[in-house]
Write a structure and sequence with these properties.
The complex is a heterodimer. Chain A is an alpha/beta fold. In chain A, the strands form two sheets. A six-stranded mixed sheet of chain A has the order 6-7-8-3-9-10, with helices on both faces. The chains are: A alpha/beta, B mainly alpha.
């Protein structure tokens, strides 16, 4: 059997009395790209936040390389290689590009590989090198998304969770960001992505899960789901693409 | 002309005290999102500590900085972990604010109990020494106060700009949750910035003790002055806070000189209101007390 990096087992999460996730189970194979798709409010972001330790589950388990993450705080999860690129990028706008990247490599484990990681980030995103001393807030939307992903790469991650990377970007930039995610994946980083651009996400992922109102309703390879009539109707639309 | 220059100089020197206090408030506000109203009470407390060191063991106030400031830093860490550890995690910042209000009155009354209501001041052998140039008289002690303010602001500035933890503090004052996602221990970052803020209260306390007479009730006014200085300077950089303090000192002295001492408070709070209404981001800051939407 293939090596599972992340296993989520019957996870339930609530905000107060409102249940956001109900018995969600999924697996992320090492070295793959897994997409999590579905309408707004389906619980995709909640799932990522729970895996990164910002939210605590009501029930279920999250295993990372076989280890139960239990109540580990975000810091220890980052130290194990679980890094999230949050929705809306959440860059430190008044800090320089380089300072943002340095903060990505804050923990000792990541600092040990700082030089290599920085080279890797500048290799993936050359524009960041040119603008490394500029304020992050002055970057364009696409560049900011690159920096957000770059900041995650600095942590020397095993799993990068990208929440809505294409949000607010033009179709051309969206395509560029997706290509970069694929490039990142080819450098042996596993990716779990939440996307509202379902067509594109299904095209690049190895496996996808479709969520609806807090549960997973469908899963399969990207190709299978692209061919699935229900998925096409519900999420992609008649023309086959939202681009 | 000579007397106007004298007024300006006095204003700058008085204002440097407000500036140190405001820099502390700015740091604490950055990560904890509250106006730490007990800052003035802390300053008076450290002024009393300095007073005691002077009276009981005759330690020179400037030498006592070496004891008072590290002590203040440790008090800051202790207060943070006992009082604010739980409250900082809450969405509602009013809890932290109310704890600060409670702390303010607790400290005031503890000072009253220990040191009584009698105003105190240090009788320093060199307190009368003045520097005279171009017909202007400047007390060396007050000049030292300005030096102290500049050095402390410089130290905090270098810490924020050049160190790893300092960078994390700046990041946390922008987006605390995002620092968690970098694996940064956000509680520790809050604790450090709080402790540095209280360390600055230690600096201001010693400065206060060397120049002014003070009693247990002096703190609240000082907190409010620091808040005015912060509003003028804008949150987001230490030198902005310091400049805001100096500006307030100048405004107060100008008001006293041109319209009379009774008008000092009316003018300075008037300016405070005007700045908040028309320039809520402050004069030098990137953002004011309220984040721009």
């Amino acid at each position: 059997m293939a090596n599972q990096l992340l296993e989520v087992k019957e996870l339930s999460v609530s905000y107060g009395d409102v249940r956001a996730l109900q018995d969600v189970s999924l697996e992320v194979e090492e070295g793959s790209i897994v997409a999590l798709v579905g309408a707004n409010g389906a619980g995709k972001s909640t799932l990522l936040k729970t895996v990164s330790g910002l939210l605590h589950p009501k029930g279920g388990q999250i295993l990372f390389l076989g280890e139960d993450l239990g109540k580990l705080n975000p810091k220890h999860r980052v130290d194990r290689g679980i890094v999230m690129v949050p929705e809306g990028r959440r860059l430190f706008q008044t800090l320089t590009v380089l300072e943002n990247l340095r903060l990505g490599a804050y923990l000792p484990r990541a600092r040990a590989t700082y030089d290599e990681s920085l080279e890797r980030v500048f290799g993936l995103f050359p524009v960041l090198k040119d603008r490394k001393d500029g304020k992050a807030g002055l970057l364009s939307g696409g560049e900011q998304q690159m920096l957000a992903i770059g900041r995650a790469v600095m942590a020397h991650p095993k799993l990068v969770m990208v929440d809505e990377a294409s949000l607010g970007l033009s179709p051309i930039l969206t395509r560029a960001i997706f290509e970069l995610i694929v490039a990142l994946n080819q450098q042996e980083t596993t990716v779990l992505m939440v996307e509202q651009n379902i067509h594109m996400a299904l095209k690049i992922c190895h496996k996808a899960y479709v969520m609806r109102t807090g549960s997973i309703v469908l899963s399969g390879s990207g190709q299978e789901l692209l061919a699935n009539e229900d998925v096409r109707k519900a999420y992609i639309g008649e023309r086959g693409s939202r681009l | 002309m000579g007397s106007l220059a004298q007024v300006l100089i006095n204003g700058i020197l008085l204002g440097s005290m407000y500036g140190i206090a405001a820099a502390g408030l700015s740091l604490i506000f950055g990560t904890m999102r509250i106006i730490f109203l007990a800052q003035g009470a802390m300053i008076v407390f450290f002024a009393f500590v300095c007073y005691w060191l002077f009276v009981k063991v005759s330690i020179d106030p400037y030498l006592s900085l070496l004891i008072v400031v590290p002590f203040a830093f440790l008090v800051g860490l202790g207060l943070f972990y006992t009082l604010f550890r739980k409250a900082v995690a809450l969405e509602d910042k009013n809890v932290s604010l109310l704890i600060a209000v409670g702390l303010m009155y607790l400290i005031e009354n503890a000072i009253l109990k220990v040191w009584s209501a009698t105003p105190r001041g240090l009788d320093i052998s060199y307190s009368g020494a003045t520097l005279v140039f171009w017909g202007l008289r400047v007390s060396w002690l007050r000049l030292a106060l300005l030096g102290l303010a500049l050095v402390s602001a410089g130290v905090v500035f270098v810490f924020l700009k050049k160190t790893r933890v300092g960078t994390a503090v700046r990041a946390a004052s922008e987006d605390l949750e995002a620092t968690k996602l970098q694996g940064i221990n956000s509680l520790w970052v809050c604790a450090i910035s709080f402790a540095i803020g209280i360390g600055l209260a230690g600096v201001a306390g010693v400065g206060l003790a060397t120049v002014y007479s003070f009693d247990y009730q002096f703190g609240f006014v000082f907190s409010i002055k620091a808040l005015v200085a912060l509003a003028l300077g804008g949150i987001g950089n230490v030198f902005g806070a310091l400049a805001g303090g100096i500006l307030l000192g100048i405004i107060e002295n100008l008001a006293a000189y041109y319209v009379g001492i009774a008008w000092i408070e009316i003018v300075s709070y008037g300016v405070f209101m005007l700045v908040l209404i028309f320039l809520p981001q402050g004069l030098f800051g990137r953002r004011g007390l309220v984040k721009k939407v």
